[in-house]
């Protein structure tokens, strides 16, 4: 049985400008211990997908339809109290910007301890001792001292390590990592990614890795779903995606990756145009206004079809 099975998830934001179709009929599966990468430009719906899994879509957003099965239970059918027992305990999230995710008026030790006391029957003293050990496990020096410090007293890399410590505190089955290294410099990024990979392998957790970095996907993910304008346009295992990309959007993303051997020799390729406004999507294929191989058939929306075993593509020309 799949650990996570999303079926026809649709999430909309109801605004004065119109209905923003952030997620449109999305389906995904993830097995235990595997890493699924969600890739796409900003505004494609990656973060909203992660928030929808935890039923944390902010107002005026609403999950309109679909099912999200986790360990056989439909998370969208649970009561608010039941979903709270799962958040942090069985499914954890590492947010994109730890300075806004961490509470500035509580010490990092208190915040880690709160996760433990909310889901486990342990004393305050035991929770604090566990917080120290968690900080040590994620590579924070002098954890006995750091446990008493506030988020603003820590560097960006340390704050992200605190977020990871909070996420793994209850040894969850699934971690949702929302661009966990975006605000960090390259050296710290490498350390955080190495730490995440080590923890994920040691604990056997599954992970949904939200990112726009294809290099990170190539290194860390087993499977990839490429998102565009709230929909999955290509989905397969990582090796197949890089060896045989089929959707023109996927090819455009790969062509735009800087290559050291071509530095100063070739102009960096870009995908023309921008992601469409999600309350005013083009008819048919949503990528067609930016596509270099569009045809007259693209005025009809293509379905996500399996062109070979395990390789799904939403494109008329890829069939």
Q: What attributes characterize this protein structure?
A:
319 residues, Rossmann fold, eight-stranded mixed β-sheet, four-stranded antiparallel β-sheet, 11 helices
| Low confidence ranges | none
In CATH, the topology of the largest domain is named Rossmann fold
Strands in their spatial order, largest beta sheet: 6-7-8-3-9-10-12-11
Give the DSSP E fraction (strand runs of 2 or more residues). 15-25%
End-to-end distance: 30 Å
The percent range for helix content is 25-40%
Number of strands: 12
H/E series: EEEHEEHEHHHHHEHEHEEHHEE
Largest sheet: 8 strands, mixed
Q: Looking at the structure, what is the overall shape?
A: globular
Task: Write down the overall mean pLDDT.
Answer: 92
Q: In CATH, what is the homologous superfamily of the largest domain?
A: P-loop containing nucleotide triphosphate hydrolases
Structural class: alpha/beta
The number of helical segments is 11
Quaternary status: single chain
The name of the CATH architecture of the largest domain is 3-Layer(aba) Sandwich
């Amino acid at each position: 049985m799949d650990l996570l099975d999303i079926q026809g998830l649709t999430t909309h934001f109801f605004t004065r400008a119109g209905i923003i179709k952030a997620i449109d009929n999305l389906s995904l599966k993830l097995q235990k211990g595997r890493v699924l990468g969600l890739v796409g430009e900003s505004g494609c719906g990656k973060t909203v997908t992660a928030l929808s899994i935890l039923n944390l879509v902010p107002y005026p957003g609403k999950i309109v339809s679909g099912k999200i099965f986790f360990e056989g239970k439909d998370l969208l059918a649970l009561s608010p109290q039941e979903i709270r027992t799962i958040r942090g305990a069985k499914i954890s999230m590492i947010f994109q910007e730890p300075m806004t995710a961490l509470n500035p008026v509580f010490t990092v030790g208190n915040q880690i301890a709160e996760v433990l006391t909310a889901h486990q029957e342990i004393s305050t003293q035991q929770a604090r001792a566990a917080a120290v050990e968690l900080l040590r496990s994620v590579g924070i020096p002098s954890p006995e001292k750091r446990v008493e410090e506030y988020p603003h007293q820590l560097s960006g890399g340390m704050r992200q390590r605190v977020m990871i410590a909070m996420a793994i505190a209850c040894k969850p089955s699934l971690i949702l990592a929302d661009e966990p290294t975006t605000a960090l410099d390259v050296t710290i990024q490498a350390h955080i990614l190495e730490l995440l990979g080590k923890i994920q392998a040691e604990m056997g957790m599954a992970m949904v890795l939200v990112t726009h970095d294809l290099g990170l996907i190539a290194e860390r993910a087993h499977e990839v779903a490429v998102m565009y304008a709230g929909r999955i346009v290509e989905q397969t295992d990582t090796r197949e995606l890089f060896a045989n990309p089929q959707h023109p959007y996927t090819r455009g993303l790969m062509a735009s990756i800087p290559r050291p051997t071509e530095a100063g020799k070739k102009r960096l390729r870009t995908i023309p145009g921008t992601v469409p406004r999600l309350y005013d999507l083009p008819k048919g294929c949503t990528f067609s206004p930016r596509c270099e191989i569009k045809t007259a058939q693209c005025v009809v929306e293509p379905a996500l079809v399996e062109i070979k075993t395990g390789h799904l593509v939403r494109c008329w020309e890829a069939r």
